[in-house]
Please model this.
Amino acid sequence: ADPIVLGCPLSTAFLYGWDAERAIKLAVEEINKAGGVQVGKEKRPFKVEVIDTRDLEPGVPVSEALLGVKKLILQKNADFILGGPIRSEAALAAMPLLAKEKKVSILSSGTLTPKYHKTVAKSPEKYKYLFRISGEAVWMVTGEIIPCLMDLGKRFNLNRLFIMIQDVGHARAGGGIIAKIMKKKGWTVLGDPVVYPTGATDFSMGLLKAKREKAQVILIWMDMPETSILLKQWNDMKIPALPFGSIIAAAEQPGFWKATEGKGEYCLANVVNAGNAPCEATPWTMKFVKAYEKKWGVEPEGYGSSSSYMAVYALKDAIERAGSLDSDKVADALKKIDLMGVYGRVRFDPKSNQVIPSLDPKEGAVGTIFQWQGGKRVVVFPPKIATGEIKLPPWMKK
Amino acid sequence: MFEANGLMVFYENMLALNNVSLACGNEQIIGVFGANSAGKSTLMYTLAGIMLDIRKKEQMAGGERITLRGEISFQGERVEDAKPSVRAKAGIILCPERRRIFPESSVLENLEIGSYLATREQAEETLEYVFEIFPALKAITRRLGGFLSGGEQQMLAIGRALMAQPKLLLLDEPLLGLSPAIQYLLAKSIKEIKEQRKTSVIVAEQYARPIMPIIDHGYILENGSAVVEGGRRELMDNPDVKNAYFGT
Amino acid sequence: MNFKKPKPNNGPLLKVSDVSKTFGGVQALSNVSFNLEKGQIMGVIGPNGSGKTTLVNAITGFIRADSGAIEYQGRNILGMAPHKIADLGLTRTFQVMRPYYSLPAYKNLIIPLFSPRARRTGGWRGGGKLGDRDTVAVDILEEIGFERDSYVPYKSASSLPTGYLKRLELARCLALRPEVVICDEVFSGLSMSEMASMLPLMERLQMEGITLIMVEHRLRELFRLATRVIVLNFGRKIAEGVPDEVMEEPEVKEAYFGSEEVFSYV
Amino acid sequence: MAKRANQRKERIDRGIKVRADGVYAISSWQEIGFLVGPRLTLILGLLLLPLVLTTAPYWQSVLGIVCIYSLLAVSFDFLAHYVGLVSLGGAFFVGVGAYISSLLNVELGLPLFVTIPLATVFGGAFCTLCFWPCLPLRGVYFAIVSLMFPLLAARVIEALDIFGGTDGVLGVEGFSSSFAEHYLPIASVLVLLFFLRRLVNEDLGLVLRGVKDNDQAVKASGININHLKALAVFISSSLGCLAGALLCHVNMWAGLSQFALDFSILPIAATVVGGSGTLVGPVLGCLILVPVSELLRDFGTLRIVAYAVILTGFIVFKSEGLMTYAARKYNQFERWVDI
Amino acid sequence: MDIIIYGIINSVTLALMALGFTLVYGVSRLPNFAHGALYVLTGFLAWFFINQFTVNYFLAGLGALLITGVVGALMYHLILVRVRGMAISEIIASYAIGLAILEGLRYGGLKGGTYVLRPFVDGSTSILGVPVDYQRILVVVLGALLVGMLWFFVNKTRLGLALKGMAQDERAALTLGIDSDRMAVVSMALGSVFAGLAALVLMPLGNIAVEAGYHVLIMAVAVCIVGGLGSWTGAVFAAFIIGFAQILTDVILGAHFQVVVALIAIIITLILRPSGLFGRQKELEERV
Ligand SMILES: Nc1ncnc2c1ncn2[C@@H]1O[C@H](COP(=O)(O)OP(=O)(O)OP(=O)(O)O)[C@@H](O)[C@H]1O
Ligand SMILES: Nc1ncnc2c1ncn2[C@@H]1O[C@H](COP(=O)(O)OP(=O)(O)OP(=O)(O)O)[C@@H](O)[C@H]1O
Ligand SMILES: [Mg+2]
Ligand SMILES: [Mg+2]
Model:
C-alpha cells in the first residue's frame, strides 16, 4: 500500500533537531513493523521525509526553514508535518503557510513559545490543523520550575536567586517571568538577569557577579552548547550557588558529563517532558527509553525526544479513528484524542490545540527536572515520578 | 651578454612591438628612445618578464589576449619563458615606469624590500651608495613611500632597483619628474653604476637629451619597430634623430 | 548650484598669502605668498620635494592649509571642498596621472562635462549650452592632440601611454571651461616633438583668457611661456620674478642646481 | 588547445556595432536578431518559466526566490562595480524593506500593493540616511561597516524588543493570487534590470564609474561625490528593500532573520559566478545558484558542503564569470592567424 | 579590578583570534574568509588525535598545526591563486572553502557540546582577589608572545618584508625577484598555522563548535579592519578597544548590549578614522 508521508522539517545538526528525528524514526519503525496504520480498510506504512531546515543555526534566515516546509508539502507530497520547525520564529512564521496548505502539523520539539498556541486559540478556525504535543514555556515556568525552586528553597534554606540567560526571546521572557514570580514569593532576585549573546564563550563576569552578590541558586536559560563552558567555569571558580537549568541544552544530553569532565555535577536541568531522562512516569516510559537506547546507542537526549515519539503515535491513533488522511477529519480526531503515552495522558486543549499538562501522569503530560549526580541523570521533579533527591555541591555546605 | 631577437608583442589584435632585436654587451649602456606609445614600456616589460605576468592576469580576467614571440638570452641562457622572479634572480632588474613604489612602507623599508635578493653586506653597502646618489632620500628615510613627492618617489624607485644587485638594470623613463639637477646627476650616476658596479644598463626614455651623452649604443623606437640603431655619435649626428629628440 | 556673480574686483585673480602646511613634522609649505593676475602664465619651480604639489593641493582644496589665506576672485577659498573650488573655475591636473582607467579616453571627459559648471558654461569654448557630450568630448580631445579619426580617443585609458595621459589630464580640466588651470608637470613624459605641439597649445589657452600656473621641471620650455616664476625650496618661496632674473639669483642657483656644472648643463 | 608555432589566436567582433549619435546602426534582420536574441531569450524565458512549471508548484515558488535574490545581486553589482562601494550589507536592505512593508501592512492595514512600493522608496531613503556618514569610507572599510549594519539592526530590535522582537511580525498578508505572486518578482527584476542597464550607460552612470575609478579626479571636476554616492546607495538600497518587501509577503512573515548574513553573501556569490559588472550576470548567477541549492536540499547537512564546493568550482574555473565569458564568445569569434 | 583583568584577557583573546587573519591580509592582501574554519579545524584535529591515537597534547597540537598549515597552503595553491587580485572573488572563494570545511566538520559529527580540549594547566588562582584560571593567564602570556613574534617576522625578516612588498604592489615586487605566488602560499600557510595556534590556546576555555568558526571570523575581520590594515599596533589596540567595550557593557549595561556596543564602537571608530586606528590607507589613496 502507499505509504503515508510524514514530512519533518528539522534542524538536524542540532540537538533539538536530531532528537526529534531519531524519536520519529524509532516510532515509525515500530509502527511499520507492527503492520502499519489502519486507514479505512487498508494498512498503510509510514514513511519519513526529513528536511534539514537549519533553523537552529545562528544566522540562517527563517525563509530557509519556510522553503523546507514548502518543499515537503509541494514536492515531497507530505501528508502530515511532524516535529518542527524547531526555532520559535520559524515555527510561528510557518503557521500561515501550513494553514494555507491545510496540512495537519504536530509540533514536538524546539518551540516553547506560548505565542504558538495562543495564536491558534485566537483564530481557531484558520489554524485548526496546528497542534503542539510538547510542553510550552508558561506551564514549564509556573507549573514546574517555580514549584521546584520553592521546594529547593524550603529544603536547604536558599532564597537568593541569580539569573543568567541567553539573548533569545524565549529565554528573556522566561527569565523575566521567573524573576517576577520569585520576587513575589519572597525570594531575593539579584539584579536584572545577565544576558549572554548566542555563542558566548566566557561567563566569568556573570559568575563573579553571582559570587559577589552571594547568590545561592543560579537559574540558567540557554539553549546553546556553549553552556557547558559556563558549568566548567562555575566549577573551576567554585561558585557557591546551585546551577538550575530551566532550559539548558548542553546539560540535557547524556554526553554532558564527558564534555565537562564531570565538572557539571549538581547541575539541574529541565527536559520538558518525562521520558527524556529515565524514569517511571508510565509503564511506557522505560520501554521507550530502552528502545531508544537500543536503536541509537544513547539515552533519549534533548527535550524533543519523547514528545516526537508520541507525536507519531498520536497521529496514528487519530488517522485510525478518522479512517482517512483528510486533513479536516484527522484534525478533528486529534482534537478528541485521549491516549496514555510515554509522559502521561495525552489530550489537547480544544481551543488552543496544546497538549494538556499536569504534575500527575494520570491527568496529563508531565514534565521532568533532573540533577546530574555521579554521571547519572536523576529525576528530582515532579515528586510523583522522582527517582532521587536534590543534592548540594560540597563547597556549598557550610 | 644580453640579447633579444625578433621580439613581437600583440595586445589583442594590436601590434605593440614589431620584430625588435636588441643587444647589450658587458658593461654597456643602451638607450632606447621613442615618442609616446612607441612601445618602450612594452619592450621593458617584455625583457624583464613582467609581460608574462600581465598575460597571465589578463587571461584570468578573460580580457584581451597578449601574444609574445621572440627570443631573449641572458649570459648565454635562454630566458624568454622564465618567470620574472627567475630573471630577477639572474640579475635582470627592472625599475618600472610610473614609480611603482610600496606606498605603505617607509623609504627605508622600501629599500630593504628591494634587497630581497641581496646579502646583508651587499644590502648595507648598496644602501649607502643609494644615499650617496640621492642625498634627498637620506633625510626622509622614515616617511611613507606613498607620501613622497613625485620626484622623491622616482629616486626611491631607482634606488630600490639598485638594492636588488642588478647585473642588467632596466630603467623605464627614469627621468620622469626629476628636477634638472637630479636628472643630470642621475645620468652621471648611471655611468658610474656601469663602471663601478660592473652593471649593464638599458634606459628607455623619450627625453633623450640628458641620456644621449652617456650611452654606448642606442635604438630609436617608432610605432613598435626599431627604426634607427647605432652608436652614440651615429645617433647624435643623425639629423632626424636630432630633430625629434633635441628640438631646435 | 547658482553662484552669485563675483563682485568686480580689481585685485589679483588669485591671492595666496602666508600659506603654511606641515605633515606631522614635515614643513611642506611655510608662509608662501604670491599673487596671480588674470591671463598670466606663472611658473612654479623648485627641487624635488620642495612643496610644489603641496601648494597646488592647498590652493585647490585637496589638502587644507594650516594657516594663511587664499583668495580667489576676492572670495576666501581656504577650507572649501575641492569640488566647490573646481566649480568656481579653478582646476588642476594631477602629477601622478589620474585618468578613469576603465573608461575609453573620450568618455573620461564625460565626467567633467557632466559637472554643474560645465553644464552652466557649455564646456570648453561652448557657448553656454552644452551639446551632445560625446561629440564635445571628442572635439576637446582633438584640439589637444588626439587624432580624431584614429583609434586613440576611443581606446581605454588604461592602455594609453604616458604622453596621452598627460594630455588627457589637461583635457579634463579644459572641459570645465576653467578660468585658472594649475598644471602639475604636464610636460614631463612628453617627447620633444610632442612638446612642440604642446607649447602652442598652452599659448592658445592663454590667449583664450585662461590663466595658467605651471609646475614644471622642464625649464627651457617653461621659460618660453611663463612671464613670471616663483621658486620654492623646502617649502619656502625663495625667489619670484621674471625667469631670467630669477635664475641669476645665487640662492636659486644654489638650491636648484647645486653647482655651476649642473647649471651649464641645463 | 594546441599551441601552434608562429600563429596566434585572433579575436574579432562579430557584430558590426557602430556607435553613431547614440543609436546602434542596424543593418539587417540578421543583425537585429543577433542583438535582440539574447535579450529576448532572457525576457521570454523568465516570463514563460512559471507557466512551464505549473505542474511543479514548488519550483514555481523557488523561481520567486530566485527573483528576490536577483534583485539583491543586481543591487550589489551596481553598487560595487559601477560606483565602487562594495557593500556586504545587502541583508540590511532586505530587513529594512521587509520590516517597513510588513509593519505598514499589519499595523496600518495597508494592502500589499501599497506597502511594497512604499517600502521600496522609504526603505531606500532610510538606508541611505543610515549609510550617509559612511560614504567617505573606502574599499574594505566601507565593506566592513556595511557588514555591521544588518548585525546591528537585528541586535537593536532584539535588545529593545520592538517590532515583535525575536518573534518577528506575524500575520503579514500573503499574495492573494498566485499570478501576482509569481509575476510581480519577475516583472520587478526585468524592469529594474532594464532601468539599471540604461542608467549605467547614461552619462550619470559614467560619472558613477568615474567615482569608482578615481574619486579625486571627480572632485577636481567640480562634482560632489558624496551626493553621487548617496544617490547610488539610494538606488541600490531601494532594490534591496523591494526584495525584502516581496520576501516578507511571500513568507507572510518578517523578522530578525531577514537581517541574516545569507542575504548579503548569496547575492555576492551569484554576482561572482554570473560575472560581475554585467548586471545580467548576477541574475544568471541566481538562476543557477538558488536552484542548485534547492536541489541539494535533500542532502541534509551535507548540502552546504556540496553547495560550497560547487560555488568554488564556478569561481575557479570561470573566474571571469559566466556572463562575461558567454558575452565574449557570443560577440567575438576567434581564429588562428599567422604572425 | 575584575573589569581590568578580564578586560585584558578578553582583549588578548580577540587579538589572538585576529592574528592569523591580520597576517594573511596584512602581508598578501588576501582576505582569508576561511580563517574561522581553519581555527575550528585545528581544534578538531587536535581533539581527534588525542582521542583516537591517545597521543599527548603537544604532539597532537603539532600534528594539527602541520595539517592546517598544509591545508592553508593547498587552498591557495589550488584555488585562490586563480582568483588572485579579484578581491570579491577571493572573499567568496575563501568563504566557500571555509563553509565547506565547517559544514563538513558538522556533517562529520562535530555537533553539540561534547568536543572539548583539556586545558594545558588545570586549576585557578586569584589575582588581586579575582579568581582567574591558569589557562587564561597562559592565553595572555602566549598572546603577547605571538604578537611580538609576528611583529618581528613581518618587520625584520627578509621573508616578512618580501611578503609586505608583495601585498602593496605585486608587479613591483616581481621586478625585485619576489615570487609572488610562492610568497602567497607561504603567507597562507603561516596564517593558517597562526589561526590554529590561537585555536589550540583558546579552545580549552570553551568547546569545539562549528559556530565558533563564524564568530572568530567576524571578530578577526573587525579587529583587523578597526586597527587599520597591515598595522600590528593597530590590531592590538583594536582588540583592546573592542575587548574592553565588551567587558564594560557586560558590567554596566548587561551582556545583552555587548554586541550592540561592540558594533557601534566599530562603526564610530571607522567613521572618525576612516582607515582604522593606525591605518593610513585613506590618506595614502587621497595623496595626489
Ligand atoms: N595593456 C595594454 N593593452 C592594450 N594596449 C596597450 C597596453 N599597454 C600598452 N598598450 C599600447 O601599446 C602601445 C605601446 O605602449 P607603451 O606603453 O609601450 O608605450 P611607451 O613607449 O612606453 O610610451 P610612453 O613613453 O608614453 O610611456 C601604445 O599604443 C599603447 O596604447
Ligand atoms: N601627506 C604627507 N605626509 C607626509 N609628508 C608629505 C605628505 N605630502 C607631502 N609630503 C612631503 O612634503 C614634501 C613636499 O612634497 P610635494 O609633493 O609638494 O613636492 P614637489 O615639490 O611637488 O616635488 P616633486 O617635484 O618631486 O613633485 C615632500 O618632501 C613630501 O615627502
Ligand atoms: Mg612607457
Ligand atoms: Mg610634485
Remarks:
- Chain A touches chain E at residues 13-15, 18, 57-59, 167, 192, 194-197, 199-202, 204-206, 208, 224-229, 233, 236-237, 249-250, 253, 255-256, 258-261 (CB under 8 Å).
